[in-house]
Structures are given as C-alpha cells and as structure tokens.
Amino acid sequence: MELKGSAQALAREYPCLKRVALLAIVLIELVCSPLAGTAADAAGKSVIHISITDIQPQKSGSLVILLFDRSGWLDVEKAVRHIEVPVDGRDALEVALTDIPYPATYALQLFRDENANHKLDMHWFPLPGPDEPYGFSNNYKPFAKPDFLKAGFPLYESDMTLRINMRN
Questions:
Q1: Helical ranges in 35-113 per DSSP H
Q2: Is residue 35 classed as helix, strand or coil in its secondary structure?
Q3: pLDDT tens across 95-137, in order?
Q4: Which of 124, 127, 149, 162 is the most buried (most CB within 10 A)?
Q5: Domain residue spans in the chain?
Q6: What confidence tens digit (pLDDT) does each residue in 3-58 have?
Q7: Dist CA 136 CA 142 (whole Å)
Q8: What's the topology of domain 39-165?
C-alpha cells in the first residue's frame, strides 16, 4: 500500500501506525460481520426446537424422538440423537435438541411408545401401517417405507424451529 502526502509523513514518523490502522479495520470487520454470532456458531453446533402437537393425551407412554442423518436413516442404533419424553397427559410439547452439528441435513422421526418397547409397532393386515401415533419432520406422511429426502431438512444455522403434528 502506497501512501501519499501527509499520510506518508505520518507513516515515517509513526511506523506502527499502518499496523494499528490495519488491525482496527480487521477488528471492525469481525465485530460487524454477519457471520459473528453465538458460541454455538463458532463451534458449528445448533439447537433444534421442536413444537409437537396432536400427541393424544388420553393414550399412555412416552414420546420417542429420533434425529437421523442420511447414513443412519431409521436405524435407531445410528440415530444422531435419541430421547424419550414423558407425555403426562399433554396434547402438545416443546422439546429442544442441543449441540447438533451443522451444516448438515437431518430428518426427525417421532412416535408415541404406548407399550414401552422402544420401537414403533406396526400392523400388516389389511394394509401395513403404524399401530402407534407417529410423526416425521416436514409433516411427511409416508405411504410406504419412509423416504429420508422427503422428511429431511437442511440445518445451516445455529437455531431452528420445527413444527410436527402427530398422526395416528
């Protein structure tokens, strides 16, 4: 960077002035940058807030929430997050999944575990389907084996809210 006139004289008299000005510009850029944010941003961790409705409080059991990435889709052992929440007669719940790595694409599967066997029970006759209330992200309702791409959502920010209606 070439200086002219009085700026050149100042730079000769105060040699560190150039570095101080450059440092000030960098600090201003960092503080005012749209990328500056929370500690979760810096670590690449996110919080997913889930608003769940139509839980059917008259039924017993807990609500199982499974967060999957594409490689572990519908394999409980490979779930990124697996939590169980007591329902206690509530028709709606708010749940937060914390420390979720991003950016990535995830999908949620929820079900009401009425018999505490930790799996979504199915019936096969006359048509295959779940025996327990269930839900997926994007309020996706599968008519066959659930598809990750239809239930999936991109997570590219440090805070996200999803709304899921349970189905029976």
A1: 39-43
A2: coil
A3: 999 999 999 999 999 999 988 898 999 888 888 889 899 999 9
A4: 162
A5: 1-36, 39-165
A6: 556 656 656 776 665 665 555 554 445 444 444 444 444 458 999 999 999 988 77
A7: 9
A8: Immunoglobulin-like (2.60.40)
